[in-house]
Amino acid sequence: MYRQMVMIRHFDELALQLLETGQIHGVVHPYCGQEAIAVGVCANLRTTDRIVSNHRGHGHCIAKGADINRMMAELFGRRDGYCKGKGGSMHIADFEVGMLGANGIVGAGLPIAAGAAVAAQLEGSDSVAVGFFGDGATGEGPFHESLNISALMKLPVIWVCENNQFAAETPVAAGLAPDNVADLAAGYGMPGALIDGNDVLAVYAAAQDAVERARSGMGPSLLECKTWRRYNHAHRGAPPPDRRPVDLKAYWQARDPIPAFERYLQQRGFLTSDQMADVGLSIDQDLAEAVAFADASPYPNPEEALEDVFA
Amino acid sequence: MTTLTYAAALDTAMAEEMRRDPRVYTMATSPSAALLAEYGPMRVKRMPISEATMTGIAVGSAGCGYRPVVHWGSVTFAFMAFDQVVNQASKIRYMFGGQRDFPIVFRARYGNGTRSAAQHSQTGYALYAHLAGLKVVLPSGAADAKGLLKSAIRDNNPVVCFEPSRCDPLEEEALAGDEDTLVPIGVASVKRPGSDVTVVALGYMVYPALAAAEALAAEGTSVEVIDPRTLVPLDVETIRQSIRKTGRLIVVDESAPTCSMASEIIASVAEDWQCCRMLRAPMRRVCMPAVPVPFSPPLEDFVLPDQTRIASAVRDVLGYTNG
User: Fold this and answer.
1) Domain limits, chain A
2) What is the ipTM of this complex?
3) How far is A287 from A299, CA to CA, in rounded Å?
């Protein structure tokens, strides 16, 4: 889990650098600061379980076991990218590892995750589906429809709200009537939990309960993980100004999930600071190789724009 | 000789394809009782009135290897699910580089001519035809309805099947052949051969077009009536061939004319020089005026194309003599 968290952090910080230097194009929604959620949830999943992500999807991809070389090649717009250069940062998917795609439309992933849970039910398997979404998605109708339908059909799905407290620039309180997203669970007849989303062990434990519940046919759960994104909502070239309140930012950045987990690992004697430094170095080595892989991969031929529309 | 109504033909297609392939399942707010009795609630899902989520469930489960058929009821309700079609179903295969196929059928009725007023009387198919990544079929008769819906269910892409309500009670000889007899997607049907004017008629409009052709035959005018049956991919070649013979084209589409399928069909003909050289009259759309469909019978009858308007358009294009 620690290695994955650091990988996500370094991957996205590298992606932001590459964006600034113009090596990757378009827009990146960095997952930095929210690593404990994707990692804590996905540590409970099997390859045959499926997840659906949102626009901030790199962390979910890495936590579900996607290949960083092919992710990086997709950011570079190259042929060896996951989507052969047709998707980019916001649309990475790896169906082989059960990552059913990032999605540029807020709230649109929930119905698709419900579809993956319906598939698990039709298979008669004990696979589960996870729908990751932000606090902003709670304003969308399909969020409420999906919660209702999942409870009605007892779907094996775990709804994971990554509440980073700002829907782009709008604070949660300005967009949601109840105090907490988790409060909505009761209305739909499913368990809801409010979790410190920066504590990977707390996320892991809550997700473990929810996954077990889903696997045993008891239906959906809603986990609200309170967190903070370290960077802006979206980055395109030079970073835009961060308009979130300074005191709130200081409060949350002091609660960064990675140093918090490092303190725990050190105190319990699981990892020394040298060992953690080695993890960081080996990740940077892997990322350097991913960039080399992406850079060596050719751009698709322009005519390939006409392929893959239909089967 | 067995005959089947349009509505029964669609039901038969569903039942046969569900029998043939266990991956086919269906979701509807009001599912067919016969299907529910035969296949049970796992494969015939009664859904709450949540079109967007029903549609997204289809996308998600199709990506996991299932072949959902979503019955939107009327296309009117399908607009609640427009995001899941525009941004997800039509683009997802492409955006993900073809990693998976998304075999989904969306069924949408439309109620023009049934005194149902503006919301329930709009064809909508041009909106869906506009989206790259969807196939669109529009059968007018029972045999085509059965054969095209079966083809749509077996197709590995999202297909929207439009079903004019006015066709429901129409009876036709059943599709000849066994359960594997299909009507291919993308092939038009020449409903009546003729040599003077080509009339391309969409959906229910095939019937007033055939009636007009019959009446005009008595005046010595030979009208060829073509039913495209599939809007995407459109069988342009069958239409072009007809115009190379007749030199005159009328497209009958009970939709508002702006950016309509009628416009698209005329554009496809206009881009072909062999057709343009043969034209003896301007190509003509017989559409609705650009108004929502009104309720009251004299109002609705005034805006929808009918046999009289089609016949009058035919006489009009025959009046050009410089060919």
Assistant:
1) 2-291
2) 0.95
3) 20
* Interchain CB contact of B154 with A (< 8 Å): no
Spatial CA neighbour of A167 closest among A136, A202, A188, A192: A136
3-state secondary structure of B171: strand
- For B169-207, how does the pLDDT look when each residue is reduced to its tens digit (9 = 90+)? 999 988 888 899 999 999 999 999 999 999 999 999 999
Same structural domain for residues B30 and B118?
yes
- Would you state the pLDDT for residue B1? 64
Asked if B53 lies within 8 A of A91 by C-beta distance, the reply is no
Q: Note the pLDDT of residue A239.
A: 74
Mean pLDDT of A298-302: 97
CB–CB of A220/A159 below 8 Å? yes
CATH code for the domain in which residue B216 is found: 3.40.50.920
B100 touches chain A (CB under 8 A): yes
Range of the domain at B132: 3-173
Where in the sequence numbering do the catalytic residues of B fall? 51, 120
A142/B59 Cβ within 8 A: no
User: Closest approach of chain B CAs to the CA of A51, in angstroms?
Assistant: 10
Chain B positions in Cβ-Cβ contact with residue A87 (cut-off 8 Å): 95-97
Q: Are the beta carbons of A18 and A295 closer than 8 angstroms?
A: no
* pLDDT averaged over every residue in chain B: 96
Q: Which residues in chain B are contacts of A157 at CB distance < 8 A?
A: none
The CATH superfamily of A2-291 is Thiamin diphosphate (ThDP)-binding fold, Pyr/PP domains (3.40.50.970)
Dump pLDDT digits (tens) for A99-132: 999 999 999 999 999 999 999 999 999 999 999 9
How far A279 CA lies from chain B's nearest CA (Å)? Answer: 31
Whether A300 contacts A74, CB under 8 Å: no
To 10 degrees, what angle do helices B33-43 and B6-20 make? 30
Q: How far is B173 from chain A (nearest CA, A)?
A: 33
